[in-house]
Amino acid sequence: MLHKISAGVVTKSPESVRSYLLLMRLDRPTGYMLYLLPGLWAVVFASGTRPDLLSVAAVAVAAVLIRGFACASNDVTDKEIDARVARTVGRPVAAGTISVRNGILWAAAQALVALLVLAVANVETALVALATYPLIVAYPFMKRFFVWPSAFLGLVMSTYVFVGWTAATGNADYPLPVYGLYAAGTFWTMIHDAIYSHQDKEFDRKIGVKSSALLFGGSTKVWLSVFLVLSVAGVVWAGSLTPIGWAFYVVVVLAALYLAYLVFRVDLDDPKACWDTFVANTYYGWIVLAAVIAGQVT
């Protein structure tokens, strides 16, 4: 449903606006959901049974904008690479429908508005998000010289845990459960990004871009299984450090089984299967969120 709504907004928008919506990937909501969900875990963990709806809304809206900022920055940096990969050749900067200058301005505008939105929750939250911006800008360069860019991406995307916790509490004094959630999000990102990278592995090999698909090769599923255990362990560790109810652990088991199912069934040599599994990863995030809510209620 969310995909249809987002695609409809982009399709029906004026042509002068459409390229900018495509640049922020508004038609592909999976990316901002994967970024947002660990932040929501943190909001509910920190808030208990009654999270502040204004803080939740600010975190949600800002996630869309920060992800848009990240995509625009990525596309400007990867302009030449995107033009050589079949899946990305139509991206606005690579295709020339948006200039590099305008791409940078659009990225900066989204980054600024996101900070203003987060400041509605509290100024500390905006400052925490601002501190993550250099990491977001740095990520596209990692695939050029770092053999495992997904590891860096995991560390970057999961910083939204700190944003969510600060939005709920108003301070950046983080207890141990926050780091458990951060670890859970980091290893989860390594899973879905590794699967995502298998879509382009042949192009990456020819171009010389580094990725998890090329690093792990035929051992990818073994590594994904390790990351799965570590992600679930991070969630359980976070819960064990708080007075959370028994239902939390029951639902976390369901989340683990679902993620294991995705890892087991995906055909890493089929680009469509990789994309579908990447999209399906959002349900793991929702199930973990449901676990946190269930634990708070019980």
Distance between the termini: 30 Å
Unreliable stretches covering 5 or more consecutive residues: none
**What is the CATH class name of the largest domain?**
Mainly Alpha
Provide the domain count.
2
Principal-axes shape call: globular
User: What share of residues are in beta strands?
Assistant: under 5%
Query: Helix and strand succession?
Result: HHHHHHHHHHHHHHHH
Task: Give the helix tally.
Answer: 16
Description:
One of its GO terms (molecular function) is 4-hydroxybenzoate polyprenyltransferase activity. It is a multi-pass membrane protein. Its main location: membrane. One of its GO terms (biological process) is ubiquinone biosynthetic process. This protein is an all-alpha fold. Helices cover 79% and strands 0% of the residues. It has helices at residues 2-12, 15-23, 30-47, 53-77, 79-82, 92-95, 100-121, 123-145, 149-157, 160-169, 176-197, 201-207, 212-216, 220-240, 247-265, 271-297. The protein is globular and about 55 Å long. The mean pLDDT is 93.
Features:
298 residues, mainly alpha, Tetracycline Repressor, domain 2, Four Helix Bundle (Hemerythrin (Met), subunit A), 2 domains, 16 helices, 0% strand, globular, transferase, membrane, transmembrane helix, 4-hydroxybenzoate polyprenyltransferase
